[in-house]
Amino acid sequence: MELLSKLNSPVIYLICGSIVLAVALVCVVFALRAYRAGKAIGMDVTKMKRTIVASATFAVLPSVGILLGVIALSGSLGTPWPWLRLSVIGALHYETQVAEAAAEAAGMEKLSAAAMTPRAFATIALLMSVCIIWGMVFSFFNCKRYTRRLSAGGAREKGEKKSSLAGFGDIAMTAMFIGLVSAYLGSYIGGFVSGQGLFRFAGSWLPLAVALVGAAAMRLFLWIKERYNAAWVDSFSIAGSMLIAMASAIFLGRLA
After folding, report:
1. What is the pLDDT of residues 123-174, one digit of tens each?
2. In angstroms, rounded to a whole number, what is the distance separating the alpha carbons of residues 4 and 74?
3. Which residues contact 166 (CB under 8 A, 6 or more apart)?
């Protein structure tokens, strides 16, 4: 717990908070420049303000999932570091998975404050940072060319063959998420099969039940989107599914 108190020290808050503040200022600068550019080209100011309010409103619930990730990781990594990771470039599914994998590689049975050491934290923090920087690096060198090739309209005007990069990107992302889901479900099913009875050990069946509840919740959100043509549901589906799955974990855990 002494290490955890150091990870929550004012110095760490100052370092991480300064970076988060710098990124937030960049976002504000670009938002103001975009607003002024919209006015300069004659866009309706009322519509722009309505779009800003709608975007801010729709961003609230999805950010709940990020907050949950910060809370989940803060118990073992302190609050400033998960706050920094999930505020700047991190993603919830990435940060939690990599933190757990790095903890196992550092010799910890699981990610916890009780077993955390300075060397383990350094390993976890380094791995969480290094593994996710490549999107920025590749974007810096290739984003302009990639965006130009993705422009189907520009390709038609120039008589070029339409690029298949967009389709490949969608397929790659889908394949990656299917792989992640399969890995998690495989571990849950393995725990269930190797358990000694359905209700004897909650760990053998509870994760699998929660995963099924989360999948059912996501399917419900997709049904609402398709049935009522409600595209805005996409902004809430992930966070909503997470909250429903977490609530089911609490309920099913008490039954177990």
Report:
1. 998 988 888 888 888 888 887 777 777 664 444 444 444 445 556 767 877 8
2. 9
3. 150, 152
Q: Is 204 exposed, middle or buried (0-12, 13-18, 19+ CB in 10 A)?
A: buried
pTM, two decimals, is 0.61
* Overall residue count recorded for the chain in this entry: 256
**Tokens 């419900």 sit on residue:** 220
Q: Which two tokens stand for residue 95?
A: 């940060």
Spacing of C-alpha 215 from chain mean position: 17
CA distance 16 to 87: 10
CA distance linking residue 133 with residue 121, whole number of Å = 19
In three-state secondary structure terms, 229 is: coil
Given the structure tokens 């907050």, which residue do they identify? 67
